[in-house]
């Protein structure tokens, strides 16, 4: 495998992984919002943010 082909495959894999993570994140956010409601979803976001900081 040549170096340029390896770089191209790595770029494709990275973009694919990013797109997959984006789709999963949007779907999970929609699902959690539907399950919790707007008020609890905001609280969920604040608690999650604090946990990430800590």
Quick overview of this protein structure:
This protein is an all-alpha fold. It has helices at residues 3-36, 38-53.
Layout of helices and strands:
Blueprint: H1 3-36, H2 38-53
Can you characterise this structure?
The chain has 54 residues and is mostly helical. The chain is 93% helix and 0% strand. The protein has helices at 3-36, 38-53. Helix 1 (3-36) packs across helix 2. The protein starts with a helix and ends with a helix. The mean pLDDT is 86.
State the secondary-structure class.
Answer: mainly alpha
Radius of gyration: 18 Å
Averaged pLDDT? 86
The biggest sheet amounts to: none
Separate helix tally: 2
Order of helices and strands: HH
The portion of residues forming beta strands comes to: under 5%
Q: Can you tell me the residue ranges where pLDDT is under 50 for at least 5 consecutive residues?
A: none
Helix content: over 70%
Molecular shape: elongated
Between the first and last Cα atoms, what is the distance in angstroms?
A: 44 Å
SS elements, strand count: 0
């Amino acid at each position: 495998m040549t170096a340029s082909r390896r770089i191209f495959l790595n770029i494709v894999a990275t973009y694919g992984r990013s797109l997959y993570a984006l789709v999963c994140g949007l779907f999970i956010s929609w699902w959690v919002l539907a399950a919790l409601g707007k008020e609890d979803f905001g609280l969920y976001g604040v608690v999650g943010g604090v946990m990430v900081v800590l």
